[in-house]
Amino acid sequence: MKANSSHEQRMQPRWVVHSSVSVFEHDSKDYIGLMVDCSHGGMMISTYDAVPAGTRLQLDLVDIAPNKDSRRTGHCEAEVIWSDKITPSLYGTGCKIHATDDMLETMLKSYQPD
User: Fold this and answer.
1) 66 φ, ψ to 5°?
2) Is 47:102 a contact under the CB 8 Å cutoff?
3) For residue 23, is pLDDT > 70?
């Protein structure tokens, strides 16, 4: 990673998501990756391909919370801020969240540590 990259200068603390949150492109329903961590204004997604900075995405996030038999689906618009290779086959993709629906707001709040 670059020593002074923008994802090291984020404004909000991030927390690790303790459930599986799958990320899909809203219109095509194509699988993009998994949410790794999030904050009030952003998230990191583990992706198989680099996503160019500046790309705006309409996303559906689907989780199955621990100890629950139901899944939740939230929607947001996100802008890719950075994308770095983290393993030979995975990229970390940092996104700024610009708009969320009520369900995604509920989901993000549930991921916050107590």
Assistant:
1) -60, 145
2) no
3) yes
- pLDDT tens digit sequence for 34-86: 999 998 889 999 999 999 999 999 999 999 766 667 789 999 999 999 999 99
- Distance separating alpha carbons of residues 106 and 10, to the nearest angstrom: 22
**Mean pLDDT estimate for the chain:** 86
User: Could you give the domains of the chain?
Assistant: 13-111 (2.40.10.220)
